[in-house]
Amino acid sequence: MSSIPRLNADKIVVGGNDVSQPIGESDKTPTGTAILNGPVVCGKVNKTQNNYEGVLNVSSNSAPQISLDSSPKLNVNLAAKVDGNVVIDGDNKTIQALLVNGDVTINGNTNQDGDITATGTVTAATLIGAHTGGSISGGVSGKSAGAKAFDIPHPSKEGYRLRHICVEGPESAVYYRGRTNKNIIPLPLYWKDLIDPASLTVTLTPIGAHQNIIVKRWDAENIYLQNQGAMPINCFFHVFAQRIDIERLIPEYEGQSSDDYPGDNSIYSINK
After folding, report:
1. Taking residues 10-14, what's their average pLDDT?
2. Given strand 184-186, what is the order of strands in its sheet?
3. Domain spans of the chain?
């Protein structure tokens, strides 16, 4: 075996300043404590002497052994392995509190408090969704269960949940619904800059009796109704219109994946 001396100690202080020991108090640090007042180098890091990037510098590469050292050479693939929880408190000395160069695998759930920005495509094995108040944009893809859904705790049955499915159609449409007893249905003020008036459709449901109500005319701001006879208007209404602030959807196109879509894919959240 090697003749290199080995040191056994309950506590090691390197650098002369024991920051764990308050002045005037007895030492209460656990056995095995190491106080290192300077850079620590573990393994053969890619830096030269006096040119450290951090206080702790770790590499999975083994440092060269001296000729008299017959101990087994370090042979591992990981520079660090942690069994237990980790907390990182950034101090703004660098742009990122955590910077990873390379692929990342997370086995478990991830909760993000703040925005997520990706320069590439975000792909999921199941559905990708946003919580209330959040949004998804850009090239997002995931495995769809066949329908786009929202799933929330049941509002009236304890221990149950409620799942609804989104209505699908071959257009980017908006709707406005309600009830009226007048011969004019004022549309939301912003609709004049949002929808194509030529695409507008109206469904009327008379309440209480047949009223022979018709849509006399319309524009981007109002729908004008007319009925026959002296009976007053009292009906539900449902108005649909196609948006003009984005390009028209191309429902069918030739291709092998959603990447072959002939229009602007960046405006859609896609479940492949």
Report:
1. 85
2. 184-186, 222-226, 214-218
3. 120-170+250-272, 173-242
